[in-house]
């Protein structure tokens, strides 16, 4: 990873999995989103302490909460596809939303507005 790529953004770069101490949410944040996994679930706990909603665009095959539901959970789960969404909804109810990323540029909502 090239850290210079993020020079214009306020961010935290961790070597490996972030420690609990590194799971600080910036003061300007109004929500917290993760992709695939939060790498340290203390991030959800810290965000909740600050009154922020959290969103996890999960990969079903990496979803640790299916076997350890006592771990910290996000406010909402964002399903990138319909694969096993019924299993997720049976476990987490209406907190599971289908929000697929655009696969092709022409699928982007911005493109649809232009055409």
Give structural notes.
The protein is α/β, with parallel strands linked by helices. Helix content is 19%, strand content 17%. It is built from 3 helices and 4 strands. The chain has helices at residues 42-49, 85-92, 109-114, and strands spanning 31-36, 53-58, 76-79, 96-98. Strands 1-2-3-4 form a 4-stranded parallel beta sheet, with helices on one face. It is globular, with a radius of gyration of 16 Å. The chain starts with 30 loop residues before the first strand and ends with a helix. The model is unreliable at 111-115 (pLDDT under 50).
Features:
disordered C terminus, alpha/beta, 115 residues, single chain, four-stranded parallel sheet
Extended strand count:
4
Q: What is the H-and-E element order?
A: EHEEHEH
Structural class, from helix and strand content? alpha/beta
Proportion in β-strands = 15-25%
Approximate helicity band: 10-25%
Q: What integer is the average pLDDT?
A: 84
Strand order of the largest sheet: 1-2-3-4
Query: How large is the radius of gyration?
Result: 16 Å
């Amino acid at each position: 990873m090239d850290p210079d790529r993020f020079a214009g953004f306020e961010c935290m770069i961790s070597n490996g999995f972030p420690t609990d101490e590194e799971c600080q949410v910036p003061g300007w944040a109004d929500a917290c989103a993760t992709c695939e996994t939060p790498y340290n679930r203390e991030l959800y706990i810290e965000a909740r302490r600050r009154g922020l909603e959290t969103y996890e665009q999960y990969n079903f095959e990496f979803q640790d909460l299916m076997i350890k539901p006592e771990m910290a959970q996000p406010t909402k789960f964002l399903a990138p596809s319909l694969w096993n969404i019924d299993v997720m909804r049976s476990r987490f109810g209406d907190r599971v939303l289908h929000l697929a990323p655009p696969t092709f540029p022409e699928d982007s909502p911005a493109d649809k507005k232009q055409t």
